[in-house]
Each structure stands twice: as C-alpha cells, then as structure tokens.
Amino acid sequence: MAAKSQPNIPKAKSLDGVTNDRTASQGQWGRAWEVDWFSLASVIFLLLFAPFIVYYFIMACDQYSCALTGPVVDIVTGHARLWDIWAKTPPITRKAAQLYTLWVTFQVLLYTSLPDFCHKFLPGYVGGIQEGAVTPAGVVNKYQINGLQAWLLTHLLWFANAHLLSWFSPTIIFDNWIPLLWCANILGYAVSTFAMVKGYFFPTSTRDCKFTGNFFYNYMMGVEFNPRIGKWFDFKLFFNGRPGIVAWTLINLSFAAKQRELHGHVTNAMVLVNVLQAIYVIDFFWNETWYLKTIDICHDHFGWYLGWGDCVWLPYLYTLQGLYLVYHPVQLSTPHAVGVLLLGLVGYYIFRVANHQKDLFRRTDGRCLIWGRKPKVIECSYTSADGQRHHSKLLVSGFWGVARHFNYVGDLMGSLAYCLACGGSHLLPYFYIIYMAILLTHRCLRDEHRCASKYGQDWERYTAAVPYRLLPGVF
Ligand code: NDP
C-alpha cells in the first residue's frame, strides 16, 4: 500500500494535516484519521440507503405522480408488493448507455482538450490555469479552469439541436430518466472504486493520502486528497462540476420541454425553477476559480461521497422540482411567483456577496474594502504536515461579521425558493431544502471543528467576535 511503503511518511496518527502550535493540538484537515462509531454508523447507513433514497424519489414520481407516501401506502394496504414496484421500473437500455457514454465522453473532452478561451474575452472572468489552495502536505496544484466554456458549448449545442439540427428530442433526458439513473450509478460506483484502488496502489501524492483501518470509511470519505490522471485530469474538479452541474440546467430544460409536450405550455413555476437554478449553476462556473478554495476542493478527500454523490445524488435529487412540475404543472399566482423570485434573488445575492467578500479578502490579503470600509481582521497561523508555518487571516467584517457562515443562509434561502415554486400540495419538491439544511448545518459544524483545530486560540478569538454560526440570535 502506497502510504505504508513511503519511507519518509510518519505513522498515520502523526501525519496530521495541520497543527496549531499555540495549542499543540492535533488538527483536522480533510477527513478524520480515526473513525468513531457514530461516523461509521452514518457511513454504513449512507452507503446502504442513499442509492435506495434516490431510487425511491424517482420511482415515486414515475409510478405515483410524485406522491412520496404512495408506494408505502400501497405496500402496507396490500395493493402492491415490492416486486410489483420493481417490475414496473424501467431497466437500463442500450440507448441510455450510449447516451450516457456520449455525454461523459463529451464532458471529458471539453475538460481535458479545450484550454479555456473565455477568460480572453469575458471581462472579469478568471479562467485558464489557476492554482488551488495549499494541501495538507504543502502541495499547490494547478487546475485548468474551463467549466464556463464547457457549460456554454454544451448549452449552445443543446439549443442548436432544439431549434435547428433536431438530432434528438429536447425531452430525451426525461424520456430516459430511469435508464440513465442506472448508468449514472455504474459510473458513480466505478469511479469511487477506482479512486479507492488508486489511493492504495498508485496515488498521485502519497503524502496527501489518508487511511483509517476501516474499509467502509476509506471507501466513502476517500483515501486520496486530489487524485489525478496525468497532469490535468483532476477527479474532484471534474466530477464536482461536470458532468453533474453542467447537466443540471440541461435536465431542467428537458423537464420544461416535457411539460410543454404533455400540457401544451410551460408554467411560470417551471420557468422560475429553470431561471433560479440556472443562475446558481452559471454562478458556479463563472466562479470556478473561487470554487478551488471551497471545502469540497480544499478539505474533502475523493471517495464515494464525492464520486457517487456527483454522478447520482446531485443530478437526480437537485432537479426534483423540475421533475415534479412535469407531473404537476403548477401555475403560480403573480404575488406568489414574485415572492419566490425575490426570495431566490435575495438568497443568491447574500450567497454571492458573502462568498465574494471572503474570496476578495483572502486574495488581497485583507487589502480591500468590505462594505466600503477597511475590513476587521483576526491574524492567525498554523503548520502544515511538512512542518511549514503558514500565516492566514480571518475576516470579521461584512457578512462574515454577521454570522460565521452567513453564505450558507443565502444558499438556504435560494433552496427554499426553488421548493416554494412548486406550491404546497406535495412534500417531494421540499426534499431539497430539508437536505440542504441538514447538509449545511452539518458542514458548518464539521468546518468549525476543523478550523478550531487548525487555528486553535485564533479561532476562539473569532468565535468570540462573531458568536453565531448561521443566524444571529438563533444558532
Ligand atoms: P466556506 O466558503 O464557508 O469556507 C469555509 C472555509 O473558509 C473555512 O474552512 C476556512 O478555511 C475559511 N474561513 C472560515 N471563516 C473565515 C473568515 N471569517 N474569514 C476568512 N476565511 C474564513 O464553505 P464551503 O466551501 O462549504 O461553501 C462555499 C459555498 O458553497 C457556500 O456558499 C455554500 O453554501 C455552497 N455549497 C453548496 C453546496 C450545494 O450542494 N449546493 C454544497 C456545499 C457548499 P481556511 O482553512 O482557508 O481558513
């Protein structure tokens, strides 16, 4: 195993990512070294049930018009057996397999073979070759940032097909939705398994691998920090952004096309979901360089959580509102639609401005203005695994002075807006806000635990200056 055969790597427990020598604590950077029983139980639960949860939601739409309780009621009352439901589920098809292979190959080609040209003509856009954050082992990876270009070309092709070429129907994604689910699962499991094997036998950077004695935890949370093939094919950047997030807007467009085909028109709720989620997706690609500094890239290892999650969980569960609206063509009253739009836009504004403030602050090393003033700063320091001492700064102004993760609040407001666009008659479209609330609260706690270990007393000074995590006065 790579980590064991590396002569200059200390034993796992001492190769921690980072320590703060004021506290002499053993810090956390990335996932844990040791698995407590609760984490292990959660990991096994997710490995067993997450694929089933995705199947349940999609099947409930396909067979029960998105009534989440439908399958359970039918089984409990004896109207259906599990086998009946399974028998009605469309299997994988050759067409879906071909489509999916074509799709992923196309995205791989766009990612690896087309250097970014958008940054050459789009003012303010940062693309091309960019550096990521320093890894626990002190490595700084370079990335080819060309996600916006991939998104634009893919959508250009989609619209060219819809309006000129007619190679395929715009409803193609909806029409093959369940067969494509099986393909996405195959890729999700294949890539996670490959990443695990690669981590053990041919890792990209041995010093950035983490092992626990637990197979399930290693599989789920990943071994390698930044697995790569060749110089540029970075697993985390590729799978996080494409094919899942590029697909997000195409999936919504396909759902809108299906709604028109079935009901003769596209409802304002469908337009709102398409527009609000497209803003989020375009923002993601416009700020892909910023994304290199987020937790996904800076701290998470690449395992099933990211590999399978990006291939299956994201495209299938983040698009539930659009899917729901195909079965329930909700037309909102004008005040309701305006309310949803405002909530979505205000949420997006907070999300973007908060993230931008931190990014600007870190890029300029605090030499910037936040809300028109010189920012308040907490100086902090930490040591990476290679023994190097690093200095950093924590921002205490702007949204980062309101709460320690106010960027998550903006995200949650946007998420709620997508759900509210679907009206109030079913629970299914509200899955997203429930999931995001759990995800971001957990992420908040996870991040704070890590920051406390990383920065020690400096982090305590920050929490004293900004006492609330998400909502001032509440949490
Ligand atoms: P953050 O952007 O909040 O990054 C947290 C990191 O920022 C910390 O680990 C720390 O890193 C640094 N930091 C924390 N406080 C400060 C401060 N006061 N000043 C300067 N730096 C600070 O978290 P995420 O990466 O999780 O989220 C990025 C965005 O992505 C969020 O808006 C979130 O809502 C969104 N998101 C969306 C998801 C989705 O599925 N739709 C999933 C996850 C996130 P360091 O070690 O560098 O100090």
From TrEMBL:
GO cellular component: endoplasmic reticulum membrane; nuclear outer membrane
Pathway involvement of the protein, from the record: Steroid biosynthesis; cholesterol biosynthesis
Keywords tagged on the record: Cholesterol biosynthesis, Cholesterol metabolism, Endoplasmic reticulum, Lipid biosynthesis, Lipid metabolism, Membrane, NADP, Oxidoreductase, Steroid biosynthesis, Steroid metabolism, Sterol biosynthesis, Sterol metabolism, Transmembrane, Transmembrane helix
Keyword Lipid metabolism: yes
GO molecular function annotations of the record: 7-dehydrocholesterol reductase activity; cholesterol-5,6-oxide hydrolase activity
Localization annotation: Endoplasmic reticulum membrane
Primary location: endoplasmic reticulum
EC top class named in words: oxidoreductase
Function as written in the Swiss-Prot or TrEMBL entry: Component of the microsomal antiestrogen binding site (AEBS), a multiproteic complex at the ER membrane that consists of an association between cholestenol Delta-isomerase/EBP and DHCR7. This complex is responsible for cholesterol-5,6-epoxide hydrolase (ChEH) activity, which consists in the hydration of cholesterol-5,6-epoxides (5,6-EC) into cholestane-3beta,5alpha,6beta-triol (CT). The precise role of each component of this complex has not been described yet.
Record's subunit section: Interacts with DHCR24; this interaction regulates DHCR7 activity. Interacts with TMEM147.
Name assigned to this protein: 7-dehydrocholesterol reductase
Originating organism: Gorilla gorilla gorilla
High-level lineage: Eukaryota, Metazoa, Chordata, Craniata, Vertebrata
